[in-house]
Amino acid sequence: MQDEDFSAFAELSPFELKDKLIAVAKTESQRVMLNAGRGNPNFLATQPRHAFLRLGEFALQEAERSYSYLNSGFGGLPEKEGMVERFESYASRFSGDQGISFLRAGISFVRDQLEMEREDFLFEMVSAFLGCNYPVPPRMLTHSEEIVHAYIAKEMFGPKPASGPFSLFATEGGTAAMTYIFQTLKNNGLIAAGDKIALGTPIFSPYLEIPPLPDYALEIIDVRMDENNEWQFPDDEIARLEDPDVKVFCLVNPSNPPSYKLSDASLEKLADLINTKRKDLIVVTDDVYGTFADDFVSLFAMCPYNTLCVYSFSKYFGATGWRLGVIGLHEDNAIDAALAGLDKKEKDLLDERYSSLTTDVAGLRFIDRLVADSRAVALNHTAGLSTPQQLQMTLFALHGLMDLHETYKSAAKHLIRHRYRTLCQNIGLDPKTGSNDVNYYYLIDLQQLGEELYGAEFAKWFAQDQRGTDFLFRLARETGVVLLPGKGFEVIDASARVSLANLTEAEYAEIGTFTRRVLDELHTDFEKEKG
Which intervals hold domain Aminotransferase class I/classII large (predicted)? Predict the structure, then answer.
C-alpha cells in the first residue's frame, strides 16, 4: 500500500474523490463500508411528513368532489368555500393521529401568530399538494413565503429585531440557490471576468470551484479563518475586504468543514467593516447549519443591506432528497442599488434581456431577475419550485416555528454532539466543545494530531508527498471508512472531514478506532524510513 501513488487524485473535488474512495472501500476492504464523507443526515423530522400525507389524502377528497358523478378516477380543482369545515369533518375520523394534530396546530398557529385567514391558507396548501396549478407567484406561493419568512427570521436573526422586510425565492435546494446567484450576478454585469471574489475559507468546495470556471473567470481572494482561534477571522484577514476591487464576499456560517459559527466578536467586526467602509459589497451567506448552532445570528441580520441569505432545509429536517432551499434578500439592498448605478450601455442591454417581462426593467428587482434567469427569462411564466415541494417546505417551516420548547432542535443537537465525543474518544482525543462549536462535521487535522501523538518530525514527514491523500486511501482500503480531504475545502494542513450526521454511534466509535490505527501504521512506516 505504501508504494502506491495516489497523488494524481489530490486535485480532485472532494466529492469526486469520494467516489474513488468508495470504490476502493467496496473492492479492497474486508469490512462493511462506513461512508462518513457526505453530510446526508440519517435522522429526519417525521411530524411534518405525517402532515403532508394526511393533507394529501384530504386534498384528493377535495378534488374528487368536483366530478364525483363521473365515477372514473376523475378529479377537479378544489373549492375554497367551506374547506375548513370539511377539513374538520375529515380530521374527526383520525383522533390522536400525528399528521392531523400537526395540521390542526398549524392552522391555529398561522391564524394566531401570522394573522392568516384559515381558509386561504388551507386552500393554498391543498392546491399545492395536488400540483394542479403553476406556482403563482413564480418566486414563491404567497402563504408559503410568509410562513418560511417567519421561520428564517426566527432562526437567522436570533434575539436581534427584524431589520426590515425581505423577500424569498424558493429553490431546488441550496445548490440551486448558489447556481442562480452566480448566474444572475454575471448576467446583470455585477461580476465580470477578472473581478475579485472573496471567500471565507475553509469553505464548501463548490464556492471554490465555481468562480474559476470559464463562465465567470473570477479571481479568488482568501479571507482565511484561524484554526487556533476556533476558526474565527483575524483582524488582518477581515481587512482584506476593504479592497474596493472585491465585488462579492461568500461565507458559509457555521463553517464547512470546521463546523464553527462566527463568534459575536467576529460578526461585529465584519458587520462594522461592511456597514461603514464597504456599503457596496455584495455578501452571500450560506447558513444551512445555523439551525444546529446555539444562539445563532446570521450576517443577514447584521448586514441586511448587503447580504443575500442562502438556506436549505436539507440537513436540519433530513430532507436532502426533497431539494428545498430559499434565497433571501431585503427589500432595501445594495444589489438593487448597484443595478440602478449601471451605465447606460449596460442598462440598455438589460432592457433588451428582460423586455419580455416588463416595460419597466429598471424597476425589476434583483430577486425577480433571479427567478427569470432560472428559466432563461423566456420561461419566467413557468418558473418556480414545484408546489408539492413548497408545501413540504412550508410544513417544515411550521414545524420549526411550533417547536416552542425546542424538543426537536435539542434532540438533533444532542445526537451530533454525542457522536463527536464518541469519535474523539476512540481516536484518543479529549473532546472539546466551545460556545461556537456546532459539531455537524469534525475536521481531523492529521498533521496536528500526528504531532501530538508522535512529535514534530513525524508531522513534517506526514505533510510531504500527498500523505494526506495516501491516508484517506489507506483508511478506505484497510478499514472501509470513507472520509473527505480537507484540502478540497481549502484547509491548509493535511486533514479529513468526518460527517457526524449520517452514521450510528457505534460506527463513529469504529471510525475513531480505525483512524488511530492507520495513523499508527503510518508512524511505523516513518520509523522504518528513519532506519
Answer: 171-510
